[in-house]
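Researcher: I've been going back and forth with a colleague about how Flavoprotein might be arranged in three dimensions. Neither of us has a model we trust, so I'd like an independent prediction. The organism is Halostagnicola larsenii XH-48, in case that matters for your notes. Sequence below.
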Amino acid sequence: MVENLAEDVHAFTSNVFLVTGDRTVLIDAGANFDVVSAIESRVDDLDAVVLTHTHKDHVANLEAVKDAFDVDAWGFDTSVDGVDHEIEDEETVVLGDHEYVAMHTPGHKDDHLCFYAREPGVLFAGDLIFEHGSYGRTDLPEGDHQELVLSIHDVLDMIEKDLQVMHAGHGQSVTTNPYGSVDLSAQTALNDAE
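Model: Here is an independent structure prediction for Flavoprotein. You can compare it with whatever you and your colleague have in mind.
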């Protein structure tokens, strides 16, 4: 089961996904709200925190979560404060009850990862891809529009057309034609690069 703990939060934060099952994992820690209490009201323990990337709105609550649950954080770049273990490109990661392929997808930030499980057809897109053809900003440090275009196309090549849901780093999860949102984002980002 996937639940967005930041869904009703009215502060600047990323989405924070609690994925329960065989391996209970928090995807991103968010910012500016009491995520620890939100977790404690749903589960007794966490097995890991997995990061899509380390922009402040995704990791400001990370230390509080690590302290409260005595848990380690996994991400692409262990040189970043708070990231304890590396997830390599194309590594398999268990989130909840399913195996996901980690994809290194720079462009929004150098350490950005997306996670895709063919079965059950779920994509965690972080801040790379959003609904309706939107995509992550590239005007922040480490942003690179050309890399972002390539990363979106890499995701498009990886996912199946019967993708069931895309969980993005901000906004609502996409359950109606999520593949179409990824495809449109690829086209929009490419057109904006020209």
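Researcher: What would you highlight for our discussion?
Model: I'd start with this: The chain has one domain: 2-193. After that, consider the following. The longest strand covers residues 98-104.
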